Here is the input.
Amino acid sequence: MDYSDRLRDHGLRVTRQRLAVLAALEDRPHSSADIVVAEVRRDLPDVSIQSVYNVLNDLTARGLLRRFSPPHSPALYETRVDDNHHHAVCTSCGRVEDVECAVGHAPCLTPSDDHGMAIQIADVLYQGVCEDCRSGAAGIAAAPVLPQGTPPK
Amino acid sequence: MDYSDRLRDHGLRVTRQRLAVLAALEDRPHSSADIVVAEVRRDLPDVSIQSVYNVLNDLTARGLLRRFSPPHSPALYETRVDDNHHHAVCTSCGRVEDVECAVGHAPCLTPSDDHGMAIQIADVLYQGVCEDCRSGAAGIAAAPVLPQGTPPK
DNA sequence: TGTCCTATTTTGAACTATTCAAAAGAAGGA
DNA sequence: TCCTTCTTTTGAATAGTTCAAAATAGGACA
Here is the structure.
């Protein structure tokens, strides 16, 4: 099923902006709004930033996109919904990798005590330092998320 | 061991501002910088907002505080570090609860494939709707994180 | 195929959370 | 007590995101 159909199924109109945002995130998962704007503008040079935010919010609320917020980072978006995968972010360069769920198929959806909450999503965010950053070749592309010289405790 | 000692052990000077921030978060875990400022000012009416951010950043970098970022929320802080507990946030009212780790003692620290990253922290963020919000008494204290009328998919 | 209604996008502005930089002030070792 | 250095303050700037109203364009229906 393509994205036009998915949009219609969710009661949403099919617009070029929405399709372009979905295509951009298909192509570059874990993108910030900023990056999505840049990506979308390669096809639609005149989209407004506001529209991209609108689309990201609408589609996230409808479950067509997934959003997560690593510390020191704008919100990131991806099209992989419905599977229970997680994320590993490098605290030095900000790079994000998908991590398949280790414990089974939908493990983290069952907390020990849910405090009466009806849990819908479990976001697991691993934070560490990636190979490149540890080997000194830190922050090639992305700006460091934490100052490199932070003294160890 | 009290907080003065902990600060010294981490090579940090003991200041009233730092002690007050730690006391505020001891008292009200999961607070935003904003709330910490308000709380701290009950003792030290003249602390600057900037100082609170300084303290929060320094102590988080040194491992004396833990920070996490739910979507649609400023960063939240707590003094519970070193145990592997998680969080459940209500997507309607924003309320946060601690959730003990279900799978064992430090389960989530071992992703199936770490992509070469040296994992240091695993943050698990459950998102759902709390009892109060489901029973219609939505958003008593806190502003809704998502518009209440968002039509289901 | 054209019309109309409403959802969506755009425009323009505002706001919140957070950071930057330089100067003033205080912790704590000598 | 003094001096050095770490912290806090002051003042301003920035990034990320949202708000509101006007313009535009899907797509149901005639």
Q: What stands out?
A: Chain A has a mean pLDDT of 83.
